Amino acid sequence: MDLFALLAGFSGGVFAASIGALPAFILTGLFAVCGAVANLAGVDAGGFLTGTMAFGPFFGPWVSFAGGVAAAAYAKKKGLSENGADIATACASYQKADVLLVGGVFGLIGQAVHMFVFVPFLSGAISPKFATDPGIIVFFSGVLVRLVFGGKLKTSDKILSSGDALTTTLTIGVFYSLLVAAVFCSVVPAAEAGGWYDALAGNYHVLVFGMAGVGLVFAEMGVAFTGCHHIVIIAAEATVGAYRTTGNLWIALVVGTVFGTIAAILGDIEGNTINCGTDSHIDNPAFAIFVMTFVVSACFN
Fold first, then answer.
1. Contact between residue 23 and residue 193 where contact means Cβ atoms under 8 Å apart
2. In this structure, are 20 and 48 located in the same domain?
3. According to the per-residue pLDDT averaged within each range, which of 27-36, 42-51, 116-125, 267-276 is highest?
4. 207 in the same domain as 134
5. Structure pTM?
6. What are the helix (H) ranges across the chain?
7. Are residues 296 and 188 in the same domain?
8. Do 213 and 140 lie in a common domain?
9. Has residue 58 been placed in a domain?
10. C-beta separation of 227 from 212 below 8 A
11. Are residues 221 and 119 in the same domain?
12. Mind listing the pLDDT tens digit for each residue in 139-198?
């Protein structure tokens, strides 16, 4: 029922705020991997793990990550933290219930928008991908947080990284995308012969997204781990879409690599322009996923 889901959305926002936005997103990735593997294995619980846990009111990024982001920004506004963009710290450590309740409010907003706008309209009219696309709500929720709790929306005049930073971004974008595309293309013949291609095509983007999300546990531990979920999910969606459209694995390989690399560049641009301050976190991977999901849907659906 809608009311149960909305209550879960508010509670999920509180929960995520209590443990921190980044730990909550890591759990999103964990359940996404478990659900994708279950779906590939034909286990009935796969739909619950992905649709309700990873991309529902429990750990759906529009609920959990968005709630954690809002709580962190509010904590800075109250003087409890010096960095409103700190998404790694558990906000329960501030020992202020109102900080957690702010997370609940934004979790509720995210769940309501997902239920009443995304699923009935964007998912049905444009692409089913929008039912599990975390990007657009997370991005605009972050913008709303910045506007509500203060701070400039544009934090830098710099648009794109330069020098070694840009080279690194491009290298990661190209080869992470190539890895995702090449693995898919390598198993397609076996999947088609074995009758499990549809399961592969329908779950591959969720699997690699989840793997990248789980990998952020290293960032939580202080390791310089590069967030790449925006790269790999778009590379996977584009590869699958291109192969479905053309039937050519080499074209799919190239398209997936190009689209994933573009997602990496978009993430870099957003990170330089509006997500480089300490007022709040406006997620640059979410921005890249939001933009590129529309592009992938326009090209291949």
1. no
2. yes
3. 27-36
4. no
5. 0.94
6. 2-19, 21-40, 45-47, 64-77, 97-113, 123-125, 135-149, 163-194, 197-215, 217-220, 229-246, 249-273, 284-300
7. yes
8. no
9. yes
10. yes
11. no
12. 999 999 999 997 788 777 788 999 999 999 999 999 999 999 999 999 999 999 999 999
Extract the tokens encoding 147: 């506007």
CA distance linking residue 236 with residue 231, whole number of Å: 9
CA–CA dist 147, 286 (Å, integer):
18
Cα–Cα distance for residue pair 257/249, rounded to 1 Å: 12
Which two tokens mark 35? Answer: 């659900």
Selection from 29, 30, 40 nearest residue 204 by Cα: 40
Q: In this structure, are residues 111 and 39 in contact, taking their beta carbons and an 8 Å threshold? A: no
Helix (H, G, I), strand (E, B), or coil: what is residue 210?
helix
Q: What is the mean pLDDT of the chain?
A: 92
Burial 169-183 (b: 16+ CB within 10 A, else e): beebbbebbbbbbbe
Q: Is residue 155 part of a domain?
A: no
What's the number of domains the chain is made of? 2
Same domain flag for 111 and 189: no
Domain region containing 82: 2-149
- Let me know whether 138 and 169 are in one domain: no
User: What pLDDT digit, counting tens, does each position of 119-152 carry?
Assistant: 776 665 566 655 556 688 999 999 999 999 977 8
Distance (Å, rounded) from C-alpha 285 to C-alpha 214?
Answer: 15
Closest C-alpha among 114, 104, 118 to residue 9: 104
19 and 60 part of one domain: yes
Q: What letters, b where the CB count within 10 A reaches 16 and e where it falls short, cover 63-100?
A: bbbbbbbbbbbbbbbeebbebbbbbbbbbbebebeebb
Q: Which residues have C-beta within 8 Å of that of residue 89, sequence separation ≥ 6?
A: 20, 72, 81
